[in-house]
Design goal:
The chain has 128 residues and is mostly beta strands. The protein has no helices and 11 strands. It has strands at residues 3-7, 10-12, 18-25, 37-43, 50-55, 63-64, 72-77, 82-87, 96-103, 117-118, 122-126. The strands form 2 sheets. Strands 2, 4, 5, 6, 9, 10 and 11 form a 7-stranded mixed sheet that branches.
Length: 128
Amino acid sequence: QLRLVESGGGLVQPGESLTLSCVVASEYPEDFGEYYTIGWFRQAPGKEREGIACIMDNGDNARYADSVEGRFTVSRDNANNTIYLHMNSLLPEDTAIYYCAADLDDKNRLIDLFYDYWGQGTQVTVSS
């Protein structure tokens, strides 16, 4: 049983940057011996949920959707059980609720069906 908590959302202007954090916790310390990929997803009003970035447990093989490639970077600090999404050059179309999720199969996938645990989401609004 993993619990994921996102933070760092807010209101920014176009062109600005924002970093989201995802802290992974568990009541059972042995869970941290498992390997899992963390994915970042977002959902804008009236749109389907979109996988935008993911990173495997070893910190390698980060993968990005075309819509954020070159602007967003995902990283993880396993010592502190925290995964980050660094967002640069934000656009109004990046406005959405952003979620992190854990894939216990530790595969590098951007498909939400493969993810087992989800955070509650954090709102990002890009507007002038």
